[in-house]
């Protein structure tokens, strides 16, 4: 490894949050903190272990190399379980260039430290056999390929042999994972039908974790420990305290393992001629109550031999409490004060010592036992009478205090982690994770974090991180074998760093390096899980976005040819067509016909690629027929007054023209008949020649275009004998309608005496006249499923109320409608009828300076309804006549607040640009809406204003403020790439909620609004600059030219080039 100021050492082990490993790594971390080394902990899982995808953790082991570390301690025996001992040895050999200390397994050429698990298991078995007369001992085996687990099984077999007890294979479980004690005991009880207490009197477990899992199962079945059977384990981990009685076990010398392995590695790094030697540390038997004992020292006679003098008792206390030099002084002082019977001083010392002992995880039963033996062998009668009771109470209080303090600390940690998890749920981009980690983890004592994701075979990617108050968000690639980019790695400094593996869905994705002073493996594991989930979500979202972008790119690529060719050929075709019309005779007609066919074929192609869009508007059917009467030998047989349709007038006229040209080519003159039915309005184009067959031209590209336009208008197209039949559906109030359930027309009239139009009486089998005043909101269901008849000339308050009720009804808003005299040009019948319902007597729309005249035409309102006003005259207008709506372009909060004092009419302010501060000021004024000038060409926005004239309904001020912020954000970032989540995040609401309130306020979705604003910006560039079309598209926020041209034509009705040619 390259030179660096602080030496780096590693700790390799399977886990830091289960069993004895939690204690080992935290103690080694404490030694590291007191040194000038930096420790890197690699909890990389057992090698190739499949359960819970543990093998995915193994990926971080490749980082244990000489470029990252100077030396390493590895708990080698813990890495087995799924692989053989020889395979673990191969793994250790890959660390050959690092100074290495191995725990639990020998690596050639390196010092090794082992713990004598064999003698530990043997000692607890001998205790049960000799002291409690155990004769039938069952055994729960640990993992098969685990070096120490095999040692413990050998101890079981050898101890039975040494004590002349028979080995019964039925009493030995198959090898199980350390966490599968329940499965092991289930195998004995259910598969082998063994009964505890009858078939075995003692259950020996290969680890405390297995003992806890099996013991909980036995307790749930009703077995009492140790009355029905004894249970013992190995490790002396925290699990040995979690059954109903504290459990007898043998203590793995975790503290000594940590101290000795650290000292050995320290010696190897500090001395060139360090001698290599191995250590074997003994395992101490810990007697508790699950074997049948009451006290760890056994009977009174046994205890007297062990602690019968004050010197022996003091030595025992120092040993079992693992007291350091200072703490030994406190114990000596306590025994001295106790002999003097100074009750106050004794209680004070015991309070301190018991708190210290319990706080670091000491066994509470030892406190009671120490008091018991002191009272038995040394205490005076007065001490027993005056002090023993208060001391026992003090033990309980201290135990309660420590438990509550630990619970409080854990709750604080859980609260911080929960807040982090909550924030991580909203992660949409990996770049936002470092700032979230910095925000929360510092509160846990984790003062630095670095996030790395795996890349290709040679590179990883540093996503970002934080150190103290500095947040790093710049991505950086670096060689895969390094922990971090070299510059960052060289300046990490001293500290304890945990390298947590991140993985998801059978795939390692990276790792998180945490510099911490909190040595809690469970917190680290919980953090790893939460972060893996957040990264998974962000990666899935990124993959979905990439897939969507790829699909959109493919779609654009597929249609780009048609889009560009369509725009590029349109002008040449028109030019050639105009020239062909000047050529006389058949030649000119042939050229004209071929050019027209080519144009139709091109438009047909555009329709299939999604580049031919129809703009449906309310239309009088005679508007479609009148142009045909002057251009073709056509006889029209039908009524002059027909109900309105909702179609693209220009495209329908083109379709009808193609049909007429097709018939005229060989079929003689044309007769056009119209018929009204519940299915819609039918147009039948019939040839005067009965022998002519319409189906002969079914492959004609022009006729195919006509058919395509009809189908895109939700109609039907058929060739019947010598006729071409087109059926266009009846519209609903909101546009496209649902089919009626029955053939009854309900004609809404002023009263029951109003005449029903002749066309309706002859077209529908059943026609019922309903006075408008008889239909209340609760009675609307009676006309659901039928066809609604309406005459737009019928006006008045009752018709306005009924129209509003119908528009808000889930079913009737989509019911087919036969509507006469509806104004043309609106997006749907609801808007069209709205435009007919406004009268000067009801109130006016006040246009304040700055709104174009063209917008008044878009609203289709009578001129008498609109009052044009200068700024200084607005207050007079508001004071002297009823006002429905105020529309202007002035940013004048003072004026609007003054208006609001006397008038509650909605105020709509439309400007070219909005600043955040301006929008915030106007957010304080109720019933005020803001927008950019791009909406002045939007029919949807026009309909929203008509709805305001009708209902006066706007969002509440606080909700409206969210929409105003979104409007400002869209305007400020229109030239950038904006994602949905970014927009929603800018106003702190969800994407769906923002879309709903935005559309409700402005009548248009945020994304349509954004496209319109971008087209507005593009139009300015086209008129004011000499930039190319591609440059204009890029500078106005569009990703590519083809998509820009498509959106531009949809909104402006022409190609971008046409705007430029009109400069």
CATH superfamily of the largest domain: Response regulator
Q: Tell me about the largest β-sheet.
A: 12 strands, mixed
Query: What is the level-2 CATH architecture name of the largest domain?
Result: 3-Layer(aba) Sandwich
CATH topology call of the largest domain:
Rossmann fold
Helical segment count: 36
- Output the CATH class name of the largest domain: Alpha Beta
The figure for the number of domains is 6
Helical fraction: 40-55%
Global mean pLDDT: 87
| Percent in strands | 15-25%
Strands, total number:
33
Rg over CA atoms, rounded to whole Å, is 44 Å
Q: How many angstroms does the end-to-end distance come to?
A: 69 Å
Helical/strand content category: alpha/beta
Unreliable runs: none
Care to give the gist of this entry?
With 1063 residues, this protein is of the alpha/beta class. 46% of the residues lie in helices and 16% in strands. Strand 23 (716-720) and strand 24 (723-728) form a beta hairpin.
